[in-house]
Amino acid sequence: MAHHTIIYGRISGATWKTEDYYKLHRLNVEIISSLPDDDSEFPWINTSMFSIPNEQGIFRDQVITFGASYKTLEYDWHLWIEKFEEILKKLFWFDVTIHAEFEVMGDYKYDWLIDIDKIDKWHKETPEPISQWKFKSDGPRTFENELKN
Questions:
Q1: Cβ-based neighbour number of residue 119 at 10 Å
Q2: Distance (Å, rounded) from C-alpha 146 to C-alpha 149?
Q3: pTM for the structure as a whole
Q4: Are strands 93-102 and 62-71 parallel, antiparallel or unpaired?
Q5: What ranges make up the beta strands (E) of the chain?
Q6: What is the pLDDT of residues 26-44, one digit of tens each?
Q7: What whole-number distance in Å separates Cα of residue 133 and Cα of residue 112?
Q8: Domain locations along the chain
Q9: Rounded CA gap, 8 and 6, in Å?
Q10: Helices (DSSP H) in 52-140: which residue ranges?
Q11: Measured in Å, how far apart are the chain's first and last C-alpha atoms?
Q12: Closest to 102 measured CA to CA, from 66, 79, 69
């Protein structure tokens, strides 16, 4: 029997220096746009899952929303997180929140927070994404133990 999972959340896009405040926002749009239209490897993460507002939807912060539903994702949840974190390593962001609703395993919240001491990488002429962060959650990164029972 297949179980249903719904994943949704948001990425708070970072800002750059005063002279080009939205530079990192534009880079984020490029990264999200470069994701595949059809991902060939489950669990799928593709460009259609993401929504990025234009200038009218950005006062200061860029809010990148995303969502999808999956069949029986609990078996591959750890792979989904790893794949999602590979995307985060390319983006410029302050914080990320995911809500995961597993039909059988329950509902969980996952948060990624940047190490504020590392944002100096953003202020270079060619900014670099942050590849280390603080991760916190009320749920597991894998359901391996729960699924064995």
A1: 14
A2: 6
A3: 0.91
A4: unpaired
A5: 4-13, 50-51, 62-71, 93-102, 106-114, 133-137
A6: 999 999 999 999 999 999 9
A7: 6
A8: 4-148
A9: 7
A10: 77-88
A11: 16
A12: 69
